[in-house]
Amino acid sequence: MFILFILMFYFIVLIFDSVVVKVFSNCHNVQLNVIESIAAVSRPRSFNEVRTRVELNLQYYQFNYIALCGLITMIAILSQPSLLLTLIVLFGLWLYTMSVEAIKFGNFELRGRQKSMAYSAFAIVLLFLVNGSTIFTLVGLCGAAVLIHAALHNLTDDEQQSIEMASDNLV
After folding, report:
1. How far is residue 1's CA from residue 145's CA, in Å, rounded to a whole number?
2. Percentage helix, strand, coil, to 5, in the chain?
3. pTM tops 0.85
4. Which of the listed residues 10, 40, 61, 75 has the most CB atoms within 10 Å of its CB?
5. What are residue 109's DSSP bridge partners?
């Protein structure tokens, strides 16, 4: 099962790399050669190396990781009708709550932040009641995909220098 997951992950990475290269070919952090990307995968020698790789790869590939998780989330939303329906209902309720000035529940009247907080609590509870397992699966799948790539991908010297230059510009 784990081997199947790894193969599926690398298949997604291969497809995702080629799509990102075509769309964002001028970005500095996009791998222009998929073969180099696969060759950069190596087994870390220690836990400290894993931690260092994860920290550096999360900085360098943050856009790619966000896009990958967004793609996985879109696939899950489109493949789960109940999740899609729940999101449509929540969007309609959000439009309604933002269009009225106050919401009344018996003697209680909610305005401004109270209204937003009540809607947020209701939305979170509804999402987890209707689609809790799907949400936990999405979080686990995205987290596993990002951490596996970040731990196994060894950054080149050029990639490490661009991270150092970016962090020097922030200081």
Report:
1. 15
2. 80, 5, 15
3. no
4. 61
5. 104
